[in-house]
């Protein structure tokens, strides 16, 4: 038995015991020794997903597909990772692609049904959710140059956590421009009003028009948020651990004993 195979077996045992981080480390060591083994990436994708690290799970699933494009299980891993990221349209497509290679795969057929049940928007599209309930909220904040610096302030993080756990709290913190800027980043809308050049008491007419347009955009964006707040139940706490359990299904979470 090769060293990589031995490490994979240890990873499988750790995963079965719900020792996810041990499993991730063991699969990672095995991958270092055997970088072209699709099953190692597939199994580590499961471990990442079950620990709530869906972005990493997606990366491993896509690597498994790259290494073994006709392997249905790799597409199943991708679908489950995308479900964990609340990307149900993309997850459905991943499951459907996997079914082209294995049409009777029960886990992927079930995955398609689960995605369709979530796609309640117009014409079966992804429904509009509250921006602060996004599972990648902190990742988006950290990646944006405007909001990244806010993370050093504990009071800011506390406010965002409050809104994430209870969207109705947004109204209490709207006076904080950092919260408004964060909302803009999450919605993909610029909610920062341009103040003109430093030292200028009165902006020129062009700047004034820009401020009016931005204020109108801000108003429309906030109206959309308020409508969302009224249409959603206040409590939308995101629990990545329970989501991992919800997304994964016993057959789907079974690790690969062999690369085949």
Task: Characterise the protein shown here.
This protein is about 65% helix and about 0% strand. With about 260 residues, the chain is mainly α. The protein folds into 2 domains: about 5-125 and about 245-255, Serine Threonine Protein Phosphatase 5, Tetratricopeptide repeat; about 130-235, no CATH class. The longest helix has 27 residues, at about 205-230. The protein is globular.
Supply the CATH superfamily name of the largest domain. Answer: Tetratricopeptide repeat domain
Radius of gyration, rounded?
Answer: 22 Å
Distance between the termini: 16 Å
Mean pLDDT: 76
Number of strands: 0
Encode the helix/strand succession as letters. Answer: HHHHHHHHHHHHHH
The CATH topology label of the largest domain is Serine Threonine Protein Phosphatase 5, Tetratricopeptide repeat
CATH class of the largest domain: Mainly Alpha
Portion of residues within helices? 55-70%
Give the uncertain stretches in residue-range form: 192-219, 228-252
How many domains comprise the coordinates?
A: 2
Q: Write down the overall geometry.
A: globular
Please state the second-level CATH architecture of the largest domain: Alpha Horseshoe
Tell me the β content. under 5%
List the main descriptive attributes of the protein structure presented here:
260 residues; mainly alpha; Serine Threonine Protein Phosphatase 5, Tetratricopeptide repeat; 2 domains; 14 helices
Short description:
This protein has 260 residues and is mainly α.
